């Protein structure tokens, strides 16, 4: 199942944007390490295999392409982020 839509995430909140039998992908808001950078963590798991990685994005960047998803950032504060996830 693919979950698209608009989400408001606080630090450490996660949204599952792709799930299936034994598979899931999540986006986690990890906060702002400084006043110019946003940290997002992506997790992926399939059965007993998992991985996670963080990306650091300048606050001026509003579009992120992740695999077959587009993530649009509409608002960022040190504690919350508003994102829209859409499937390509």
Tell me what the structure shows.
The strands form two sheets. This protein has a four-stranded antiparallel beta sheet with strand order 1-8-7-6, with no helix packed on it. The chain has a four-stranded antiparallel beta sheet with strand order 2-3-4-5, with no helix packed on it. The protein has one domain (5-87). It is 0% helix and 68% strand. It has strands at 5-10, 14-20, 23-29, 37-46, 49-58, 63-66, 69-76, 80-87. It is mainly β. The radius of gyration is 13 Å and the shape is globular.
Record the SSE blueprint.
Elements (H helix, E strand, L loop, with lengths): L4 E6 L3 E7 L2 E7 L7 E10 L2 E10 L4 E4 L2 E8 L3 E8 L1
Antiparallel strand pairs: 1-8, 2-3, 3-4, 4-5, 6-7, 7-8
Features:
88 residues; mainly beta; 4-stranded antiparallel β-sheet; 8 strands; globular
What's this model, at a glance?
The chain is mainly β and 88 residues long. Helix content is 0%, strand content 68%.
What distance lies between the first and last C-alpha atoms, to the nearest angstrom?
Answer: 14 Å
> Mean pLDDT, as a whole number?
91
Total number of distinct structural domains: 1
How would you name the oligomeric state of the polypeptide chains in this document?
single chain
- Gyration radius, rounded: 13 Å
- Low-pLDDT runs of 5+ residues are none
Helix content range of the residues, please? under 10%
Please give the count of helices: 0
User: How much β-strand is present in the residues?
Assistant: over 45%
Structural category: mainly beta
**Overall spatial form:** globular
**What spatial order of strands do you see in the largest sheet?**
1-8-7-6
Give me the count of strands: 8
- Biggest β-sheet description: 4 strands, antiparallel
SSE topology string: EEEEEEEE
